[in-house]
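Support case: user asked for a sample of complex input and structure output to validate their parser. Sending the pair below.
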Amino acid sequence: MAEEKLHEAIDAMKNSGVRITPQRHAILEHLIQSMSHPTADEIYKSLEGKFPNMSVATVYNNLRVFKEIGLVKELTYGDSSSRFDCVTTDHYHIICDDCGKIVDFHYPGLDEVETLAEQVTGFRVGDHRMEIYGKCPDCQKSKH
Amino acid sequence: MAEEKLHEAIDAMKNSGVRITPQRHAILEHLIQSMSHPTADEIYKSLEGKFPNMSVATVYNNLRVFKEIGLVKELTYGDSSSRFDCVTTDHYHIICDDCGKIVDFHYPGLDEVETLAEQVTGFRVGDHRMEIYGKCPDCQKSKH
DNA sequence: ACACTATTTATAAACATTACAAAGTAAGAA
DNA sequence: TTCTTACTTTGTAATGTTTATAAATAGTGT
């Protein structure tokens, strides 16, 4: 499953003429395997073991490359640092206001919204993002 | 119209026990009158004339206060700096991938999505945000 | 294996945002 | 009105993320 996605991603890179380096391989693998939505720094730290000499710049560079190919999406919430999410299936995120937990949330998609937006604004729409905010079950229990 | 909104905002501040300073008044006024979605720095610069001694910190401090009262929303896109939007009526934003222009876009709201999200994830939902991305009419013409 | 070019690395720089302490001021009480 | 107190502002320094740069390195097609 994860193997499969990794191969697909590598194929996408080949098709885009992007070189496959060990660092890129590892960053992608981490993004696919980790169920979380890591920051650039978290990725950097978690690969320190395998790549003691890897630079933070490499992480940022490659996340940008992945974004440009469309393999990865950047999530900019209120916090200081961006989070990165492997684009696999269409899904949205629901975020806890208290503890910051991010949970994937599948929804049919909002094609009608995109269509209406095109008509109203004259834009040619390519994409959209949505996040839902609330209080996760754990934080609801600990009502302080 | 703008006058009215300003008064409402000031009342909201009074009710929350937040002091009304000239700086806060000016920042709010600017946010309401400007049809754009300014960054903290843009607000700071545009008030240089009236408040030559105002600190950037004041702008940030007060934007945080306004956010806490619910008068203002912070918009974090891919760019480096956040943008701030006066909460008036429910609306979404459509953003040009090329030139970064932000256009307001009214839509009935996505209550069903919130409801479904509650059921699926167990969160208690409070809010959501959505942005649509595309190419604005101007940038469509100048096909480079 | 070679050559060409993209990529990595290390470091410094840029940038937005926050922290802090001292000076100033809004707002209610006397 | 004046006083008092706690909240705000200011100026500056610090923090933290992200980008720029140049030299060293390593993929990839031939």
